[in-house]
Amino acid sequence: MSFLVTARKYRPSTFSEVVAQGHVIHTLLNSIALGRIAHAYLFSGPRGVGKTTTARIFAKAINCPNAVDGEPCNTCDTCVEISQGRCIDVVEIDGASNNGVEQVRTIRDSVRYTPSRDKYKMYIIDEVHMLTKGAFNALLKTLEEPPAHALFIFATTEPHKLPPTVISRCQRYDFRRIAIEDIVAQLRHICEQEGIDAEENALYTIARRGDGSMRDSESIFDQVVAYSGSSLTYETVREVLHIVDQDTFFRVTDLILTSDTRGGFLLADEVVMSGYDTQDFLAGLEEHFRNLLVVRSTGETRLIEAPEEMRNRYAAVAERFSEGDLLRLLRMTSNAMQALRFSAQPRLRFEVTLIDMIKLDSTVEISTLLSGMSGGPVTTAAVPQRNAAAAGAGPQRNVASGGIASTGTVATSVVKEQLRSAERSYKQALDAFGGSTPSQTSIPPPSTVGSAVSVSAMQAPAVAPVPAPAIQDIPPHPIVQMLIDGLDAVVLPGTK
User: Which of 71, 155, 280, 439 is the S-S candidate for 51 at Cβ 3.0 to 4.6 Å?
Assistant: First the structure.
Protein backbone atom coordinates (compact mmCIF):
# COMPACT_ATOMS: atom_id res chain seq x y z
CA MET A 1 0.00 0.00 0.00
CA SER A 2 1.28 3.44 -0.95
CA PHE A 3 2.06 6.01 1.71
CA LEU A 4 -0.80 8.27 2.69
CA VAL A 5 0.11 11.65 4.15
CA THR A 6 -0.99 12.41 7.68
CA ALA A 7 -3.38 15.20 6.60
CA ARG A 8 -5.36 12.67 4.54
CA LYS A 9 -4.94 9.62 6.75
CA TYR A 10 -6.23 11.36 9.84
CA ARG A 11 -8.76 13.58 8.10
CA PRO A 12 -11.94 13.73 10.22
CA SER A 13 -14.73 11.47 8.98
CA THR A 14 -17.35 12.43 11.59
CA PHE A 15 -18.44 15.65 13.24
CA SER A 16 -16.96 14.56 16.57
CA GLU A 17 -13.48 14.34 15.04
CA VAL A 18 -13.46 17.94 13.80
CA VAL A 19 -11.09 19.98 15.98
CA ALA A 20 -11.86 23.40 17.51
CA GLN A 21 -15.01 24.18 15.46
CA GLY A 22 -17.65 23.29 18.03
CA HIS A 23 -19.83 26.31 17.26
CA VAL A 24 -20.23 25.21 13.64
CA ILE A 25 -20.63 21.48 14.37
CA HIS A 26 -23.26 22.07 17.05
CA THR A 27 -25.36 24.21 14.70
CA LEU A 28 -25.15 21.73 11.83
CA LEU A 29 -26.09 18.79 14.07
CA ASN A 30 -29.12 20.69 15.38
CA SER A 31 -30.21 21.62 11.88
CA ILE A 32 -30.06 17.95 10.87
CA ALA A 33 -31.98 16.83 13.96
CA LEU A 34 -34.68 19.48 13.45
CA GLY A 35 -34.87 19.02 9.69
CA ARG A 36 -33.95 22.67 9.09
CA ILE A 37 -31.57 22.16 6.17
CA ALA A 38 -30.83 25.36 4.25
CA HIS A 39 -30.27 25.43 0.51
CA ALA A 40 -26.95 27.33 0.63
CA TYR A 41 -24.08 27.52 3.12
CA LEU A 42 -20.95 29.64 3.20
CA PHE A 43 -17.96 28.25 5.11
CA SER A 44 -15.27 30.90 5.62
CA GLY A 45 -12.07 30.95 7.61
CA PRO A 46 -8.27 30.48 7.45
CA ARG A 47 -6.70 27.70 5.43
CA GLY A 48 -6.51 24.20 6.83
CA VAL A 49 -9.12 24.57 9.59
CA GLY A 50 -11.69 22.06 8.27
CA LYS A 51 -14.03 23.91 5.88
CA THR A 52 -14.04 21.38 3.03
CA THR A 53 -13.82 18.46 5.47
CA THR A 54 -16.91 19.68 7.33
CA ALA A 55 -18.74 20.12 4.02
CA ARG A 56 -18.03 16.47 3.13
CA ILE A 57 -19.16 15.23 6.54
CA PHE A 58 -22.33 17.30 6.24
CA ALA A 59 -23.00 15.81 2.80
CA LYS A 60 -22.60 12.30 4.24
CA ALA A 61 -24.74 13.05 7.29
CA ILE A 62 -27.79 14.28 5.36
CA ASN A 63 -27.59 11.52 2.74
CA CYS A 64 -26.52 8.56 4.90
CA PRO A 65 -29.41 6.09 5.44
CA ASN A 66 -27.80 4.79 8.64
CA ALA A 67 -26.99 8.10 10.32
CA VAL A 68 -27.25 8.14 14.13
CA ASP A 69 -27.76 11.48 15.90
CA GLY A 70 -26.58 13.29 12.80
CA GLU A 71 -23.32 11.32 12.52
CA PRO A 72 -22.72 9.37 9.30
CA CYS A 73 -21.97 5.66 9.50
CA ASN A 74 -18.98 5.81 7.09
CA THR A 75 -19.72 2.25 5.98
CA CYS A 76 -22.59 2.54 3.50
CA ASP A 77 -22.07 3.12 -0.20
CA THR A 78 -23.03 6.78 0.07
CA CYS A 79 -20.51 7.54 2.82
CA VAL A 80 -17.70 5.59 1.15
CA GLU A 81 -18.24 7.23 -2.23
CA ILE A 82 -18.40 10.73 -0.77
CA SER A 83 -15.21 10.09 1.25
CA GLN A 84 -13.46 8.88 -1.92
CA GLY A 85 -14.78 11.78 -4.01
CA ARG A 86 -16.65 9.66 -6.57
CA CYS A 87 -20.26 10.16 -5.56
CA ILE A 88 -22.49 11.15 -8.47
CA ASP A 89 -24.85 13.23 -6.38
CA VAL A 90 -22.13 15.14 -4.49
CA VAL A 91 -20.03 17.27 -6.85
CA GLU A 92 -16.87 19.01 -5.65
CA ILE A 93 -15.73 21.93 -7.80
CA ASP A 94 -12.51 23.94 -7.61
CA GLY A 95 -13.51 27.55 -7.98
CA ALA A 96 -10.00 28.56 -9.02
CA SER A 97 -10.00 26.43 -12.19
CA ASN A 98 -13.75 26.50 -12.89
CA ASN A 99 -14.41 30.18 -12.44
CA GLY A 100 -15.98 31.14 -15.77
CA VAL A 101 -19.57 31.75 -16.81
CA GLU A 102 -19.69 28.56 -18.92
CA GLN A 103 -18.83 26.34 -15.93
CA VAL A 104 -21.52 27.98 -13.83
CA ARG A 105 -24.07 27.56 -16.62
CA THR A 106 -23.28 23.83 -16.61
CA ILE A 107 -24.02 23.70 -12.89
CA ARG A 108 -27.23 25.68 -13.43
CA ASP A 109 -28.40 23.24 -16.10
CA SER A 110 -27.57 20.09 -14.13
CA VAL A 111 -29.12 21.25 -10.86
CA ARG A 112 -32.61 20.73 -12.31
CA TYR A 113 -32.22 16.96 -12.42
CA THR A 114 -33.06 14.92 -9.33
CA PRO A 115 -30.42 12.88 -7.50
CA SER A 116 -29.76 9.43 -8.89
CA ARG A 117 -29.77 7.70 -5.51
CA ASP A 118 -29.34 10.03 -2.54
CA LYS A 119 -31.72 12.49 -0.90
CA TYR A 120 -29.85 15.64 -1.87
CA LYS A 121 -27.82 16.72 -4.86
CA MET A 122 -24.98 18.76 -3.45
CA TYR A 123 -22.47 21.14 -4.99
CA ILE A 124 -19.35 21.91 -2.92
CA ILE A 125 -17.46 24.83 -4.49
CA ASP A 126 -14.04 25.38 -2.93
CA GLU A 127 -12.24 28.74 -3.22
CA VAL A 128 -15.50 30.28 -4.37
CA HIS A 129 -14.05 33.79 -4.21
CA MET A 130 -12.12 32.97 -7.41
CA LEU A 131 -15.29 32.99 -9.51
CA THR A 132 -15.62 35.88 -11.89
CA LYS A 133 -18.27 38.57 -11.58
CA GLY A 134 -20.12 37.11 -14.53
CA ALA A 135 -20.07 33.65 -12.97
CA PHE A 136 -21.57 35.00 -9.74
CA ASN A 137 -24.30 36.81 -11.67
CA ALA A 138 -25.14 33.62 -13.56
CA LEU A 139 -25.47 31.76 -10.26
CA LEU A 140 -27.59 34.29 -8.37
CA LYS A 141 -31.07 33.22 -9.50
CA THR A 142 -30.37 29.52 -9.01
CA LEU A 143 -28.82 30.22 -5.63
CA GLU A 144 -31.87 32.17 -4.48
CA GLU A 145 -34.53 29.67 -5.59
CA PRO A 146 -32.90 26.27 -6.14
CA PRO A 147 -34.86 23.01 -6.49
CA ALA A 148 -35.86 21.30 -3.26
CA HIS A 149 -33.30 18.54 -3.82
CA ALA A 150 -30.35 20.89 -4.47
CA LEU A 151 -27.91 22.18 -1.88
CA PHE A 152 -24.87 24.45 -2.27
CA ILE A 153 -21.86 24.70 0.06
CA PHE A 154 -19.28 27.41 -0.63
CA ALA A 155 -15.85 27.39 1.01
CA THR A 156 -13.49 30.36 0.95
CA THR A 157 -10.58 31.94 2.80
CA GLU A 158 -11.52 35.44 1.59
CA PRO A 159 -15.24 36.04 2.11
CA HIS A 160 -14.83 39.78 1.60
CA LYS A 161 -14.29 39.12 -2.12
CA LEU A 162 -17.75 37.65 -2.52
CA PRO A 163 -20.56 39.92 -3.72
CA PRO A 164 -23.00 40.88 -0.96
CA THR A 165 -25.82 39.49 -3.09
CA VAL A 166 -24.27 36.01 -2.83
CA ILE A 167 -23.52 36.24 0.91
CA SER A 168 -27.10 37.34 1.65
CA ARG A 169 -28.43 34.14 0.06
CA CYS A 170 -26.30 31.84 2.27
CA GLN A 171 -26.05 30.82 5.89
CA ARG A 172 -22.57 31.91 6.82
CA TYR A 173 -20.35 29.95 9.21
CA ASP A 174 -17.00 31.42 10.23
CA PHE A 175 -14.38 28.80 11.06
CA ARG A 176 -11.85 29.79 13.71
CA ARG A 177 -8.10 29.60 13.76
CA ILE A 178 -7.15 26.46 15.65
CA ALA A 179 -5.41 27.06 18.96
CA ILE A 180 -1.87 25.82 19.48
CA GLU A 181 -2.97 23.54 22.32
CA ASP A 182 -5.57 21.85 20.10
CA ILE A 183 -3.03 21.26 17.34
CA VAL A 184 -0.55 19.85 19.84
CA ALA A 185 -3.21 17.50 21.22
CA GLN A 186 -3.98 16.24 17.72
CA LEU A 187 -0.29 15.75 16.89
CA ARG A 188 0.18 13.91 20.18
CA HIS A 189 -2.70 11.59 19.22
CA ILE A 190 -1.11 10.94 15.84
CA CYS A 191 2.22 10.13 17.50
CA GLU A 192 0.49 7.60 19.75
CA GLN A 193 -1.15 5.94 16.75
CA GLU A 194 2.06 5.86 14.72
CA GLY A 195 4.34 4.79 17.58
CA ILE A 196 6.43 7.98 17.51
CA ASP A 197 8.18 9.29 20.62
CA ALA A 198 7.92 13.09 20.52
CA GLU A 199 9.05 15.83 22.90
CA GLU A 200 6.44 18.32 24.02
CA ASN A 201 8.52 21.30 22.93
CA ALA A 202 8.94 19.74 19.48
CA LEU A 203 5.17 19.45 19.02
CA TYR A 204 4.69 23.05 20.17
CA THR A 205 7.28 24.23 17.66
CA ILE A 206 5.52 22.42 14.83
CA ALA A 207 2.15 23.81 15.91
CA ARG A 208 3.49 27.37 16.04
CA ARG A 209 4.96 27.02 12.55
CA GLY A 210 1.55 25.77 11.37
CA ASP A 211 0.07 29.17 12.36
CA GLY A 212 -3.37 27.88 13.34
CA SER A 213 -3.74 25.50 10.38
CA MET A 214 -4.13 21.81 11.17
CA ARG A 215 -3.27 20.79 7.62
CA ASP A 216 -0.07 22.85 7.59
CA SER A 217 0.96 21.44 10.97
CA GLU A 218 0.40 17.87 9.83
CA SER A 219 2.40 18.51 6.66
CA ILE A 220 5.30 19.86 8.72
CA PHE A 221 4.96 16.86 11.01
CA ASP A 222 5.40 14.49 8.05
CA GLN A 223 8.48 16.41 6.92
CA VAL A 224 10.14 16.21 10.34
CA VAL A 225 9.27 12.53 10.84
CA ALA A 226 10.76 11.73 7.43
CA TYR A 227 14.03 13.19 8.73
CA SER A 228 14.09 11.87 12.30
CA GLY A 229 12.15 8.62 12.12
CA SER A 230 10.39 7.38 15.26
CA SER A 231 12.04 9.88 17.62
CA LEU A 232 10.95 13.51 17.42
CA THR A 233 13.06 16.02 19.37
CA TYR A 234 13.11 19.79 19.59
CA GLU A 235 16.61 19.98 18.13
CA THR A 236 15.49 17.87 15.18
CA VAL A 237 12.52 20.13 14.48
CA ARG A 238 14.68 23.23 14.77
CA GLU A 239 17.28 21.79 12.40
CA VAL A 240 14.79 20.65 9.78
CA LEU A 241 12.76 23.87 9.81
CA HIS A 242 15.86 26.05 10.29
CA ILE A 243 14.30 28.18 12.97
CA VAL A 244 15.97 30.24 15.67
CA ASP A 245 16.32 28.62 19.06
CA GLN A 246 14.24 30.23 21.82
CA ASP A 247 17.39 30.45 23.92
CA THR A 248 18.75 32.97 21.42
CA PHE A 249 15.89 35.36 22.12
CA PHE A 250 16.47 35.04 25.85
CA ARG A 251 20.12 35.88 25.17
CA VAL A 252 18.94 39.15 23.61
CA THR A 253 17.04 40.10 26.76
CA ASP A 254 20.07 39.22 28.87
CA LEU A 255 22.21 41.51 26.72
CA ILE A 256 19.67 44.32 27.19
CA LEU A 257 19.69 43.86 30.95
CA THR A 258 23.49 43.98 31.10
CA SER A 259 24.01 46.61 28.36
CA ASP A 260 26.54 44.29 26.71
CA THR A 261 27.19 45.86 23.30
CA ARG A 262 30.07 43.48 22.60
CA GLY A 263 27.76 40.54 23.08
CA GLY A 264 25.25 42.23 20.76
CA PHE A 265 27.71 42.38 17.88
CA LEU A 266 28.77 38.78 18.47
CA LEU A 267 25.14 37.64 18.51
CA ALA A 268 24.37 39.52 15.29
CA ASP A 269 27.34 37.89 13.62
CA GLU A 270 26.22 34.46 14.85
CA VAL A 271 22.73 34.96 13.44
CA VAL A 272 23.95 36.13 10.03
CA MET A 273 26.69 33.49 9.68
CA SER A 274 24.22 30.72 10.63
CA GLY A 275 22.14 31.60 7.60
CA TYR A 276 19.06 32.83 9.42
CA ASP A 277 16.94 35.42 7.70
CA THR A 278 17.15 38.64 9.70
CA GLN A 279 13.47 39.37 9.01
CA ASP A 280 12.47 36.02 10.49
CA PHE A 281 14.76 36.63 13.46
CA LEU A 282 13.15 40.01 14.18
CA ALA A 283 9.69 38.47 13.80
CA GLY A 284 10.60 35.85 16.41
CA LEU A 285 12.09 38.54 18.64
CA GLU A 286 8.88 40.55 18.33
CA GLU A 287 6.86 37.55 19.51
CA HIS A 288 9.37 37.11 22.34
CA PHE A 289 8.86 40.69 23.56
CA ARG A 290 5.10 40.26 23.19
CA ASN A 291 5.17 37.24 25.48
CA LEU A 292 7.18 39.15 28.06
CA LEU A 293 4.75 42.07 27.88
CA VAL A 294 1.75 39.79 28.33
CA VAL A 295 3.25 38.17 31.41
CA ARG A 296 4.43 41.50 32.83
CA SER A 297 1.06 43.18 32.32
CA THR A 298 -1.29 40.38 33.34
CA GLY A 299 0.79 38.13 35.54
CA GLU A 300 -0.71 35.22 33.55
CA THR A 301 1.42 32.69 31.70
CA ARG A 302 -1.52 30.79 30.22
CA LEU A 303 -1.83 33.45 27.53
CA ILE A 304 1.50 32.32 26.07
CA GLU A 305 1.43 29.53 23.49
CA ALA A 306 4.38 27.57 24.87
CA PRO A 307 5.15 24.53 27.03
CA GLU A 308 4.95 24.85 30.81
CA GLU A 309 8.73 25.01 31.23
CA MET A 310 8.99 27.88 28.76
CA ARG A 311 6.14 29.74 30.45
CA ASN A 312 7.95 29.65 33.78
CA ARG A 313 11.04 31.02 32.10
CA TYR A 314 9.07 33.92 30.65
CA ALA A 315 7.63 34.67 34.08
CA ALA A 316 11.11 34.91 35.61
CA VAL A 317 12.49 37.24 32.92
CA ALA A 318 9.39 39.49 32.79
CA GLU A 319 9.95 40.47 36.41
CA ARG A 320 13.10 42.35 35.36
CA PHE A 321 11.34 44.56 32.81
CA SER A 322 8.55 47.09 32.94
CA GLU A 323 5.63 47.52 30.55
CA GLY A 324 6.94 50.83 29.23
CA ASP A 325 10.29 49.46 28.21
CA LEU A 326 8.81 46.33 26.62
CA LEU A 327 6.49 48.50 24.56
CA ARG A 328 9.44 50.55 23.35
CA LEU A 329 11.31 47.38 22.43
CA LEU A 330 8.29 46.13 20.49
CA ARG A 331 8.07 49.39 18.55
CA MET A 332 11.78 49.32 17.80
CA THR A 333 11.51 45.75 16.49
CA SER A 334 8.49 46.55 14.33
CA ASN A 335 10.15 49.67 12.86
CA ALA A 336 13.34 47.72 12.20
CA MET A 337 11.42 45.07 10.25
CA GLN A 338 9.94 47.78 8.04
CA ALA A 339 13.29 49.51 7.52
CA LEU A 340 15.07 46.24 6.79
CA ARG A 341 12.96 45.66 3.69
CA PHE A 342 14.38 48.72 1.97
CA SER A 343 17.87 48.75 3.44
CA ALA A 344 20.84 48.44 1.08
CA GLN A 345 22.87 46.98 3.95
CA PRO A 346 20.56 44.64 5.88
CA ARG A 347 23.29 43.33 8.15
CA LEU A 348 24.22 46.86 9.25
CA ARG A 349 20.60 47.70 9.91
CA PHE A 350 20.20 44.48 11.90
CA GLU A 351 23.29 45.19 14.01
CA VAL A 352 22.23 48.78 14.68
CA THR A 353 18.81 47.57 15.78
CA LEU A 354 20.30 45.17 18.32
CA ILE A 355 22.70 47.79 19.68
CA ASP A 356 19.87 50.34 19.95
CA MET A 357 17.94 47.84 22.06
CA ILE A 358 20.94 47.08 24.24
CA LYS A 359 21.67 50.80 24.81
CA LEU A 360 18.02 51.61 25.42
CA ASP A 361 17.64 54.20 28.15
CA SER A 362 15.29 53.26 30.91
CA THR A 363 12.14 55.30 31.39
CA VAL A 364 11.26 56.96 34.68
CA GLU A 365 8.06 58.57 35.90
CA ILE A 366 7.65 62.32 36.05
CA SER A 367 6.96 62.21 39.75
CA THR A 368 10.29 60.52 40.35
CA LEU A 369 12.14 63.46 38.82
CA LEU A 370 9.99 66.06 40.54
CA SER A 371 10.49 64.44 43.93
CA GLY A 372 14.17 65.19 43.59
CA MET A 373 13.45 68.86 42.89
CA SER A 374 11.17 69.21 45.90
CA GLY A 375 13.20 67.04 48.24
CA GLY A 376 10.16 64.85 48.94
CA PRO A 377 9.77 61.11 48.71
CA VAL A 378 9.03 59.28 45.49
CA THR A 379 5.26 59.04 45.02
CA THR A 380 5.16 56.29 42.41
CA ALA A 381 4.89 52.62 43.07
CA ALA A 382 8.02 50.60 43.25
CA VAL A 383 9.30 49.38 39.88
CA PRO A 384 11.14 46.11 39.22
CA GLN A 385 14.83 46.26 39.92
CA ARG A 386 17.17 45.02 37.23
CA ASN A 387 19.47 42.18 38.09
CA ALA A 388 22.34 43.88 39.81
CA ALA A 389 24.57 40.83 39.62
CA ALA A 390 24.08 40.56 35.89
CA ALA A 391 24.58 44.23 35.41
CA GLY A 392 28.09 43.90 36.84
CA ALA A 393 29.10 41.96 33.74
CA GLY A 394 28.56 44.94 31.50
CA PRO A 395 28.38 48.74 31.60
CA GLN A 396 26.13 50.02 34.35
CA ARG A 397 23.09 52.02 33.33
CA ASN A 398 22.36 55.41 34.85
CA VAL A 399 18.75 54.78 35.81
CA ALA A 400 17.22 57.30 38.16
CA SER A 401 14.53 54.97 39.41
CA GLY A 402 16.68 51.85 39.60
CA GLY A 403 14.49 50.12 37.04
CA ILE A 404 12.11 50.69 34.19
CA ALA A 405 8.74 52.41 34.63
CA SER A 406 6.07 53.73 32.33
CA THR A 407 5.60 57.48 31.99
CA GLY A 408 2.60 59.75 31.98
CA THR A 409 0.66 58.02 34.75
CA VAL A 410 0.78 60.80 37.33
CA ALA A 411 -2.24 63.01 37.84
CA THR A 412 -1.81 66.59 36.65
CA SER A 413 -2.81 68.02 40.01
CA VAL A 414 -0.13 65.99 41.78
CA VAL A 415 2.54 67.15 39.37
CA LYS A 416 1.53 70.79 39.74
CA GLU A 417 1.62 70.54 43.52
CA GLN A 418 5.12 69.12 43.42
CA LEU A 419 6.20 71.88 41.03
CA ARG A 420 4.82 74.52 43.38
CA SER A 421 6.67 72.86 46.26
CA ALA A 422 9.88 73.04 44.26
CA GLU A 423 9.17 76.71 43.47
CA ARG A 424 8.72 77.52 47.16
CA SER A 425 12.04 75.84 47.96
CA TYR A 426 13.62 77.90 45.20
CA LYS A 427 12.29 81.17 46.61
CA GLN A 428 13.43 80.25 50.10
CA ALA A 429 16.91 79.70 48.74
CA LEU A 430 16.83 83.12 47.07
CA ASP A 431 15.70 84.73 50.29
CA ALA A 432 18.58 83.10 52.14
CA PHE A 433 20.99 84.47 49.55
CA GLY A 434 19.72 87.99 50.08
CA GLY A 435 17.29 88.13 47.22
CA SER A 436 19.79 87.64 44.46
CA THR A 437 18.46 86.78 41.05
CA PRO A 438 19.44 83.59 39.29
CA SER A 439 21.83 85.49 37.12
CA GLN A 440 23.69 86.87 40.16
CA THR A 441 23.89 83.76 42.36
CA SER A 442 24.42 80.12 41.53
CA ILE A 443 21.61 78.03 42.91
CA PRO A 444 22.36 74.65 44.51
CA PRO A 445 21.45 71.57 42.47
CA PRO A 446 17.89 70.28 42.67
CA SER A 447 18.88 67.49 45.01
CA THR A 448 19.80 70.07 47.70
CA VAL A 449 17.13 72.66 47.08
CA GLY A 450 14.92 71.24 49.75
CA SER A 451 17.62 71.34 52.45
CA ALA A 452 18.10 74.22 54.87
CA VAL A 453 20.64 76.88 53.94
CA SER A 454 22.81 78.44 56.66
CA VAL A 455 23.17 82.19 56.28
CA SER A 456 25.99 82.41 58.79
CA ALA A 457 28.13 80.04 56.75
CA MET A 458 28.07 82.41 53.84
CA GLN A 459 30.64 85.17 53.39
CA ALA A 460 29.30 88.66 53.88
CA PRO A 461 29.24 90.74 50.74
CA ALA A 462 31.72 93.62 50.34
CA VAL A 463 28.96 96.12 49.64
CA ALA A 464 25.84 96.85 51.48
CA PRO A 465 23.29 94.21 50.77
CA VAL A 466 20.17 95.04 48.83
CA PRO A 467 17.05 94.51 50.87
CA ALA A 468 15.55 91.19 49.94
CA PRO A 469 12.19 91.45 48.25
CA ALA A 470 9.27 89.55 49.59
CA ILE A 471 9.15 85.92 48.62
CA GLN A 472 5.87 86.31 46.81
CA ASP A 473 7.41 89.12 44.66
CA ILE A 474 10.32 86.97 43.44
CA PRO A 475 9.68 85.71 39.91
CA PRO A 476 9.37 81.94 39.62
CA HIS A 477 12.17 79.87 38.17
CA PRO A 478 11.89 79.85 34.37
CA ILE A 479 12.03 76.05 34.14
CA VAL A 480 9.40 75.62 36.85
CA GLN A 481 7.14 78.14 35.17
CA MET A 482 7.58 76.40 31.82
CA LEU A 483 6.54 73.08 33.32
CA ILE A 484 3.49 74.58 35.01
CA ASP A 485 2.41 76.32 31.82
CA GLY A 486 2.87 73.09 29.90
CA LEU A 487 0.68 71.17 32.31
CA ASP A 488 -2.14 73.62 31.68
CA ALA A 489 -2.10 72.74 27.99
CA VAL A 490 -1.36 69.03 28.17
CA VAL A 491 -3.53 66.31 29.63
CA LEU A 492 -1.45 63.36 30.71
CA PRO A 493 -2.64 59.82 29.89
CA GLY A 494 -4.98 58.45 32.49
CA THR A 495 -6.20 61.93 33.53
CA LYS A 496 -9.09 64.10 32.54
Answer: 155
Count of structural domains within the chain = 4
150 DSSP β-pair partners = 121
CATH number at residue 226: 1.10.8.60
> What crossing angle do the helices spanning 51-63 and 77-84 adopt, rounded to 10°?
160
pLDDT digits 0-9 by tens, 45-104: 999 999 999 999 999 999 999 988 889 999 999 999 999 888 999 999 988 888 888 888
Mark whether 306 and 437 lie in a shared domain: no
| Domain's final residue, options 122, 146, 174 | 174
Q: CA triplet 411, 414, 415: central angle to 5 degrees?
A: 90
395 in the same domain as 256: no
CA pair distance 174, 163, nearest whole angstrom: 17
Model-level pTM greater than 0.90?
no
CA distance 176 to 178: 6
Indicate whether 350 and 432 sit together in one domain: no
Cα–Cα distance between 18 and 14 in angstroms, integer?
7
Number of H-type helices and E-type strands within the chain = 22, 7
Range of the domain at 291: 246-358
Secondary structure letter of residue 486 according to DSSP: H
- For residue 76, give the 3-state DSSP assignment: coil
- The phi, psi pair for 387, rounded to 5°, reads -65, 110
Return all residues near 383 (Cβ < 8 A) that are at least 6 apart. 322, 401, 402, 403, 404, 405
Query: Do residues 456 and 372 make contact, with C-beta atoms less than 8 angstroms apart?
Result: no
- The continuous run of DSSP H or E covering 126 comes out as strand 121-126
Question: Chain-centre distance of CA 337, in angstroms?
Answer: 15
User: Whole-angstrom Cα distance, residue 231 to residue 252?
Assistant: 31
